[in-house]
Amino acid sequence: MDDPDLILVTQSNVVDYEGYGKLPLDRLDLYKSLVYPRMVHHAGGFRSHLDYINHQTTGKIFEDASYPERRRMLNIWNLPSMAGVHLANYLMQFGLRVHVINNLDSEWDWFEQAYAACKRPPLVGISSTFYLSWKEVGAVARRLRALDPDMEIVLGGAFANAETIHADPAAFGARMRRLGLRYVLHAFNSEPDLRDLLLARRNGTGMESVRNIARIDGRLKDGTFEPGTKHWHKALLSLDECPPTWDRLHLPFLNRTIQIRTASGCPFSCAFCSYPTTAGGWSTVEADHVRAHLDSVMRIPNVDRIIFIDDTFNVPPHRFRELIRIFAEYRFEWFSFLRVQYVNEEDVKMMKDSGCAGVYLGIESASDTVLKNMNKRATGKQFAEGVRLLNKYDIPYLAAFVLGFPGETDRTIQENIDFIRNNGVRFYSLKEFFYMAHTQVHEKRAEYGLTGMGSKWAHATMTHEDAARIKLDIFQSVSESTHIDPDTSLWYMAYLYDQGYDFGAIERVQAEINGVMKRQLATLADAPAWPSALPTLRAAE
Predict the structure, then answer these.
(1) How far apart are CA 67 and CA 109, in angstroms?
(2) Which terminus of the chain has a smaller tally of CB atoms within 10 A, N or C?
(3) Whose CA is closest to 261, among 323, 351, 304, 196?
(4) Which tens digit of pLDDT belongs to each residue from 227-267?
(5) Sequence-separated contacts (24+) of 366-372 with Cβ below 8 Å
């Protein structure tokens, strides 16, 4: 693509595996809950589960491979993001050209080539969807500016927006100067602001009309900083706000799977979740408009799998049924999030018949006590019935559990274990409660005796240390189900499926990796005597 208006970096690795690998193994007991079961110790360091498979199948780890090799290796960030493809599709209708770099760690050579080929310097965007700290943003920004110290960089997305929830945009100034960011778009739905920024930049007009933008005019070190004002945008739907032109995009990183959404926001208000606060409302796309976009997606060569990232895909139920009737008209398989308490047998049969390949169940807890505190509007019995139906129709699913929410006790933990063991749960994940100020539970902190913030908290019935210990106890003791890393969860399964692994192979591969981690945890007292490498793991034929 000649002279794009924007080169957009949508993803990169967010876990510092090298840093964890430098920690002393003889002190592993002090940090084991941070690495297990997220990582496996292999080939001299802590690795992602996918990199373990890479080493077993290719003899290399991801970081030791060339960029062309990395694009052929397993890496969760090689799965095409929704953000980059959506933005390219949205901006194309305004005559704006976007070159998408899906995974900077696999496509740095592509980035260098695209940037060098531009006759006029493009704006370079960093999507912060998956970043949780300025450290992660800074690593990308410094790499970009090492290529060109004068590069104009804009940061946008979820992290940038979250930074303004409890702070004024004026706080961006020092960070922007230090990291070399020219602009920060800090609205939750910032697509129109990015459009206006790109058009103003192309036309040489002032930036005064661009909303939700913090910017530095002049040299980054001593230029004038303008924090801008905050303006709320309604939810921007990827299908509602742009024509169905997915098949016209240049997406060389695609394999068989693409991600889209048919709704924005969430009609629920779970007490631990910040999404209803940040999203600001819930809206859906009409079914016929979804159909037009599916027609466009199906014209992309080789793409025959879709991940719908709607937070509440099967709500309301009548719309869900309308959508899966449409899906049945196409030859693609699909993944989604599912509020399993709201499905009946007819729904699940229709899901199977329409090509459902797998779903994510945010069960969070099987205890009615904890579910009530979470404001989940569900019971353990309803979850069990939904899981029974998915098992009956052989639809793979990941059941996700949150440990340590206020009200959690040894009894409620046992209810979770019993649910996994007694209901034939095939895949599950465990994650400790994460305490955020912009959630409902924060409003009840006095009632629960809740103190701390983030990953370090305590309340009347549990502490974060207790939850971390319990997580490892469950992981080591439950043998009836296969644990999946909660940070990648459904995407991990959908990505391996995209790469040729069927669910039987995924189960066997992950069971082997989990077995290695369990043996490593069991040998802590004997100094690090890690098991030898397992035989080569192969994708399904």
Answers:
(1) 7
(2) C
(3) 323
(4) 887 776 665 555 667 889 999 999 999 999 999 988 876 66
(5) 366/401, 366/415, 366/416, 366/418, 366/419, 367/407, 367/408, 367/411, 367/412, 367/415, 367/416, 369/407, 369/412, 370/405, 370/407, 370/408, 370/412, 372/407
